[in-house]
Amino acid sequence: MRKLIAAAVALLVLNGCYFSRKKDDRPWPMDVVSKIEVGKTTKAEVLKLLGPPKQIIRLLESEAYMYVASVEKSSGLVLVVLNLSRSDRQYDAVTVIINRQDVVTAVGARFSGDDAAYGLPWD
Question: Considering the entire predicted model, what is its pTM?
């Protein structure tokens, strides 16, 4: 009887749940990105506003500066023989195209990092 109670207590203790949040890099506020104007803003001003890019892609007549930040939220249920988990990763991303004269020719942004959500594993 004691072994059965000990086994039941052990099974109860080994179960649980968890929540985690992970940020990769820092997000850029929309008002900072809105200061970048096509045809007016220079490469130096972009670097001053956003800092160094995460990736630079060399194109034929220009360069694409890629800025990416992510937020990931995870939750899970841990049972002795079954583990269920769910992760939701959302990104804030800014892409700036700069021509050979060091002037911005295009800018695109997506801000969905705040949309990352916790949830049940079966959602």
Answer: 0.73
DSSP the chain: -HHHHHHHHHHHHT-EEEEEEEEES----HHHHTT--TTT-BHHHHHHHH-S-SEEEE-SSEEEEEEEEEEEEEEEEE-SS-EEEEEEEEEEEEEEEEETTSBEEEEEEEE-GGG-----TT-
And the tokens for 82?
């079954």
Q: Which residues, in sequence order, are bridge partners of residue 75? A: 19, 86
* Model pLDDT for residues 82-105, shown as the tens digit of each residue: 788 888 899 889 999 999 999 999
